[in-house]
Amino acid sequence: MADFDLGASFIPALHKPSALLPIAKHRDSLLYLIETNPVTIVVGQTGSGKTTQIPQFLEQAGWCEDGKLIAITQPRRVAATTVAIRVAEEFGCELGKEVGYSIRFEDVSSATTRIRFLTDGLLIREALADPLLSRYSVIMVDEAHERSISTDILLGLLKKIMKRRPELRIVISSATLQAEEFLRFFDSHESESEGSSSVGNETKPAGAIISLEGRTYPIDVLYLDSPAEDYVEKAVDTVLNIHTEEAEGDILVFLTGREEIDNAVQMISERAADLRPGTQSTLALPLYAGLSTEQQMYVFEEAPENTRKIIAAASQRAGRAGRTKPGKCFRLYTEDDYRALPDMNVPEIQRTNLAPFILQLKALGIDNVVRFNYLIPPPAELLSKATELLFSLGALDEYAKLTKPLGMRMAELVVEPMMAKTLLTASSFGCLGEILTIAAMTSLGGSVWVQRDGEKKQLESARRKFAAEEGDHLTLLNVYHTFVGKGKKESRFCHENSLNFKAMTRAVSIRAQLKRYLERFGIQLDESLKLSSPATSDQIRRCLTTGYFAHAARMQPDGSFQNVAGGTTLMRTQAH
């Protein structure tokens, strides 16, 4: 089952009837391009209907015959989930039947599924068991312009798979004009030296590009004349000016973090109360990952009568307006500052920890990770650091080959490498049950805490009840044990303790799945016996150090800390 149960009532306001979407008139030409080209790149603005309609076009055109599936990958789990809900509603089926989704630790699909939404990372993981991804007739890589590391790795794998599966069709959907770059990537010959043979001298392009009209209504973009000293203050001022001067319509405010959002919501609510009588009411709503699912979905509900909703890469932000009527985009910086911004963010593969992906590539039999066909190669320093970490964890041997069984098991576990090593060594420290719990609690992808309006003190008080001097891992362990024991896995307990009930329920499920992985490896945990002496915090911290030694630091004479690898100084801070 999904970790939350959403009706589709919140979605129709965001979407036009499918026949009115800009993509509708391109249906036949799109299907022709997909039929005749191995790779089709679809360029269109947010709101054009790419994500919801293309999979349905393909299913109707017969691409699911002979039991094949259509896969649509998303960079984020929440997108895979919510889009699947929408498409299942349009398709007229129960979620998990003909239309389903799969994300890490959660599979809402079945033997009857024909259209499957999933994250890029999960499709890469599927290749461990099925290297040619043979169950899929079409793989659509959505939001490719975001250039997540999983997307870039997946595109490299798909390029390899194409050579063995000429019948496979790949659709790449992007909201920005990077289409030529994607096409050049699939047209270029592989430079790998891992035994792959060259494929003749054919010059026929690997694919085609189709461009859609995305925005039906115009958007006016406005800039500041001079830079703002306090952009949160400026955002609030701008919201209130829009509210008093502009025609009806909701306002989206984009800020950089939870604290700014909470402050802005409070400031707007306070100042709106002082507006002149007769002014339309405001409803300021926060939206960020730390909120419960119900709180996040509340922003999609229709506003009360005579009330304006205010919710919180620049060109994509503008794309959120203009879907149902003309809109305006107020940019809180000057036009010169905007023009000085880079066209796109630095791809994640050039700025993040590569260890989980190097481990996956090695498990897929791609030993020469330096020569792997990346869209843009990662810096040599990042590759070197990732390889060094995996070697020190015992996942790679001195020849940079995957070790057996440790390295293979680490690759198979659906947690990052340092936690995988910790889990696989927990038995020897006598704390397997506790480490399983900690692994589940740290794999949720969001906070277990919920801060409700005006309840900041209650949240801090609840945190203190569970806090452990030894750190966050032991605190999370306390939360879980109390939830399943004293709390009896009930929502009331969570509400009283500022905890996210759905997240805690999900942690119970994740823990059970991780336990099954370990049992497959022959690592047993008998929880039918209530042990009188659970593992000590010392045992747990020693075990955590086997995986997270790279994060350890030594205290220096001046009170600062130096990480064990050297070169990075950390300062001690007071816990909040």
UniProtKB/TrEMBL annotation:
CDD domains: SF2_C_RHA. Gene3D superfamilies: 1.20.120.1080, P-loop containing nucleotide triphosphate hydrolases (3.40.50.300). SMART domains: DEXDc, HA2. Its EC number is 3.6.4.13. It is an enzyme of class 3 (hydrolase). InterPro entries: AAA_22, DNA/RNA_helicase_DEAH_CS, HA2_WH, Helicase-assoc_dom, Helicase_ATP-bd, P-loop_NTPase. The keyword Hydrolase applies. Keywords: ATP-binding, Hydrolase, Nucleotide-binding. Pfam families: AAA_22, HA2_C, WHD_HA2. PANTHER family: ATP-DEPENDENT RNA HELICASE, ATP-DEPENDENT RNA HELICASE DHX35-RELATED. This is RNA helicase. It comes from Apiospora phragmitis.
